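# step 3/5: fold
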Amino acid sequence: MDNNKRSWCLRIGVHDGWEYAVGQSQQKILFKNIYSQLKSGGKIIFEAEFLETLQSFWLLKYFPELLSAYSKCCHSIDFYKEILQEIGFKNVEIKGINDKSTQDGMLRIGQSNPEIYLNSNILDNMPIFRINNTASQISQGKKRLYKDMKSKNLEGIIKSYQNNIPSNFKSSDNIFFIVAEK
């Protein structure tokens, strides 16, 4: 019986707290295992937050502690390209999309609906907030966000952060992923 797969879809995101538990060497093992399970021509698709995309994330203005947390656990685009190619993957592509419908508890869900970040229940279910922010920091960030939303300043702030997105992505992209082929 052939147990090899044609494709794997995987979410690797610090917004899920995954990278706190699994370091670079463990990720490499994971990708090797996936590679061994793929049929020739099979693909891996995984979502990730990259070091290069962090500066485009306007939420950092309100919760600056997130930058420190992300910087410790995010990896660069080159890191992923290098380990995937070293394992044997080819046609490694970095992509971005703008998904305004994303409502799955990921950190960037409020890109199009910032009011989400005022909901404590949503923030409490995001490990990155529980791990890296005190209740006081979260409260202060929510107050600043609310103030900018009411004064209509938020739209300009969001646009200014979108200018920081790397040139290989569109300024409106809010989900980033890698596709690689065996």
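# step 4/5: annotate
Residues 13-21 have pLDDT under 50 and may be disordered.
# step 5/5: archive (pending)
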